Amino acid sequence: MRTKLIAGNWKMNGRKPMVRELIAGILSRLDVNQRSEVMVLPPFPYIPLVNSLLDATPVLLGAQDLSRHDSGAYTGEVAGGMLADVGCSHVLVGHSERRSLHGEDNALVAAKFNAAQAAGLQPVLCVGETLDERSAGRTDEVVSGQIAAVLEAAGVAAFGRAIVAYEPVWAIGTGQTASPEQAQSVHAMIRAQIAKEDATIAGRLRILYGGSVKPDNAADLFAREDIDGGLIGGASLTAEAFMGIYQAAG
Ligand code: 13P
């Protein structure tokens, strides 16, 4: 049985007072009877503060991006080794906003995936199709292509130390959630793609859904066989909404 994971991608939001309030609100709502895990992914500058606020708690800490390089003359970039050094255990790679706003292609995403693992971080590999791609009936082709690029570069064993997040671009920040059926269908396809190479790794792989997850739609999504939790954007910015989703995960 895969433990569900509720991960909050804060994106570029918040200042210190909000960070403190949000973490206090999350910690006060943790429930020993819940099996699900919780992760927060703050902007880079707040990682040390969040790490100190999370000290001795079970809440996991991740970053939203990393450089493909380990160190050197890459002004403005942040290396996976640095993120591990300041307390991160996880990092997003290939979020759709990185792909669309920063031109990250499958090859760069695969390089970042490898860089994360080389630094001892678990990558959370984000994949998903645009509305045009879905309308053209290309969802499976696009998503399986995004997974294949990383499978080729990293090998299937690497998926034993990674998480996948399916985030249809048209559902991110739009209030338009994929239906549980739509999400389950893509999650099952991803798991089958990994299973072709290694059924054990596929069976253990956590595949999160992201895209307008809210407390009132989370339970239906999380009830599906291959949906192992959520990657939450907007609703991760208040403890009440975020932990409402956590409650829904059971
Ligand atoms: P929303 O939950 O705001 O749609 O964002 C999803 C997302 O992009 C999480 O990474």
Structure description:
There is one protein chain. By secondary structure, the chain is of the alpha/beta class. The protein has 11 helices and 8 strands. It has one domain (about 60-235, about 245-250): Aldolase class I (TIM Barrel), CATH 3.20.20. The chain has an 8-stranded parallel barrel with strand order 1-2-3-4-5-6-7-8, surrounded by 6 helices. Helix 2 (about 45-55) links the parallel strand 2 (about 35-40) and strand 3 (about 60-65). 1,3-dihydroxyacetonephosphate binds near residues 95 and 234. 1,3-dihydroxyacetonephosphate binds near residues 9, 167, 210 and 231.
Annotate the secondary structure layout.
Blueprint: E1 5-9, H1 16-29, E2 37-41, H2 47-53, E3 60-63, H3 80-85, E4 90-93, H4 96-101, H5 106-118, E5 122-127, H6 131-135, H7 139-154, E6 163-166, H8 180-195, H9 199-204, E7 206-210, H10 215-222, E8 229-232, H11 239-249
Parallel strand pairs: 1-2, 1-8, 2-3, 3-4, 4-5, 5-6, 6-7, 7-8
Bound molecules: 1,3-dihydroxyacetonephosphate.
